[in-house]
Design a protein that fits this description.
The structure is a homodimer of 188-residue chains.
Chain A: H1 8-23, H2 30-37, H3 41-47, H4 53-56, H5 59-72, H6 79-96, H7 98-109, H8 112-135, H9 140-163, H10 170-187
Helix pairs in contact in A: 1-2, 1-7, 5-6, 5-8, 6-9, 6-10, 8-9, 9-10
């Protein structure tokens, strides 16, 4: 194995996810992940703090996409409009790695500790949205509420996207869920 | 100490919360909780599986209140109306133990592991609402969405209630947040 390892990080992530799906997260070791990727444990730990981090390293990209989309939403956009644009942006990222996203979710669904970690991630994405909205001049209460509700919509749409038997896009589920939200709140 | 221990469970919970606030959750042992309550460790473990459970034993009451309120909401109530009634019911429970709820939250805010557990609790309350709505004949998608959004509103309102310097009731924050939700979605 040469010292130059093209996309070691990506190979490790792919190997890890394969093993988590095959054997379960708890029954997979870092040594096995490194071996499957044709790399050393030392290389693994240069890229990831632990085997859990492999599943959550994408969070920072989602955060950046959400924050960037909110910042760039048209000035006339309401807080929820801005959140909607941001969620569609995040949907684009996940759509591009659809198989990964679905396999990852099946691993998380099978493990309570990972479910907890995933909820923490979603809570941090809500904070990201809140901060981005406040930077647009949205007052704190409206920002927090639009962000919390936006993440609730995202969570709901994401679950439907993962569970579908068809091939509809996440962005479509998000648009439907936002429309559903409007219908639900208008009725009441 | 006699064998008959009036409200041992309540005394243990009170002692535990006091100690968590004074010393922090991690620096409190079951032995110290039992001592503060004037009881034995054995008695503690008859009531609680561990020191974390003391903080989450109230979840089942909240679940019952939410499910009961949704079931009893008028037939004409929309899914979000039914969720609103349920959240106000839960607010009543928390309002009755306001000081406890606030102290408990300060303990949770200081500890990442407890924050994760609290998010799991909220996710399970969302499932409770979904199930209760489905039993009213609400279709799965509308039930899931109203429940997720309802819990987002609750989380938001609860945080404002805990952080307030005044003495306004949680139910009032919930009503305001639901009104805010309607405003936010109508605008968009």
């Amino acid at each position: 194995m040469g010292r130059w390892q093209p996309d070691a990080r990506g190979r490790l992530a792919k190997a890890a996810l394969e093993l988590y799906v095959e054997r379960g997260f708890d029954r997979t070791s870092v040594a096995e992940i490194a071996e499957r990727a044709g790399l050393t444990e030392r290389t693994f730990f240069r890229h990831y703090a632990d085997k859990r981090e492999v599943l959550f390293a994408g969070s920072s990209e989602l955060r950046d996409v959400l924050a960037g989309a909110v910042a760039q939403a048209p000035e006339s956009a309401t807080p929820l409009d801005a959140v909607a644009v941001a969620l569609e942006g995040a949907a684009g990222v996940l759509e591009a790695r659809k198989e990964h996203a679905r396999q990852r979710q099946s691993v998380i669904d099978a493990n309570t500790e990972l479910q907890e970690r995933e909820l923490i991630k979603l809570a941090s994405l809500s904070e990201t949205l809140t901060d981005a909205l406040r930077q647009r001049g949205v007052d704190e209460a409206a920002a927090g509420l639009a962000a919390e509700v936006g993440i609730a919509v995202f969570k709901f749409a994401f679950r439907r996207w993962v569970d579908q038997t068809g091939e509809r896009e996440l962005a479509q589920f998000i648009r439907e869920s936002l429309a559903g939200l409007r219908a639900v709140t208008a009725d009441a």
